[in-house]
Design a protein that fits this description.
Structural class: mainly alpha
Order of helices and strands: HHHHHHHH
Oligomer: single chain
Number of helices: 8
Length: about 190
Amino acid sequence: MTADETFQATTDLQNPAKSADAVTRLVQDVTGVDLRQIAMDAFKARAEEWTREHSDFYNCKPNQKLLALELGKMVNGDVAQITKQMMTETFHRMRAAGDLFEDPNESAAPSNVTPFPDETQVQRVETTRSGRSGTGTRSTNFRAPQSVQTKTLKYTREQIDRMSIAKTEALIKSGDKDYAEACEFYYPSAQAMA
């Protein structure tokens, strides 16, 4: 740290809102130890241990990120405060709400039905209505809007093309919104100039 940075950090020690960060910076400068990285490494170790203990958690990167983000919000980014109990409670809450991905390989047990000779047995794949689809988006987000209202423009493309330069300049200078909307619709890459 420079002399100015050290002075600022010692000044920040007096401010309760900045004191924790100031201590972290000063300790790191003196010892070379990054306390934030130590806390993050300890959290990762707890999370890996928790994952091994909870086989019902589908351990994939999207679920790891979703769970970590939710936990991070709860502790305002201070990962040192995250406990295994918090992970378990948050996991159960998110799973009940359908906020986590489900294991696509986990399906119902195969039936003991023997197919007739020369037949192949086809198993129906059951999917739950709750949870997310393979795209990570709920299926209800793909529905078309119920009603679409179209706006009729005052000027057609033909009217704009036939318009004199004087009339065009007058519409631009007057700030005619209808003319501007029509120009933006028919000529999206062009810019009106007065």
